[in-house]
Design brief:
Layout: E1 10-14, H1 19-29, E2 36-40, E3 46-50, E4 58-62, H2 69-85, E5 90-91
């Protein structure tokens, strides 16, 4: 039988643009950063791997869209898509 959660869990993820600020936010919120790995291949393709379950959780992603804008924006969009496909409750 499936386990039913009483309330949605908040999860905080950092992508590659500014890990330092994400760590400070996580410390202030007393919430651990979620486990995610990112990789950019030599042909420019970006791979995101969420290394924990996000099903039913409220996800917050820390990512700036500063230089290199294209890479950072695509990384963010791929992460949002991955969270939605993994049945996150909300992605912010």
């Amino acid at each position: 039988m499936a386990e039913i959660k009483a309330e949605n869990q908040l999860k905080l993820f950092s992508l590659s643009s500014n890990i330092e600020i994400a760590e400070k936010i996580a410390t202030e919120m007393n919430v651990p950063l979620g486990k995610v790995s990112t990789r950019q291949f030599s042909d420019g393709e970006i791979m995101i791997n969420i290394e924990e379950t996000v099903r039913g959780d409220d996800i917050y992603i820390i990512q700036s869209t500063s230089f290199p804008v294209n890479d950072n924006l695509w990384e963010l969009l791929i992460m949002i898509d991955a969270c939605k496909r993994a049945s996150a409750n909300s992605v912010n």
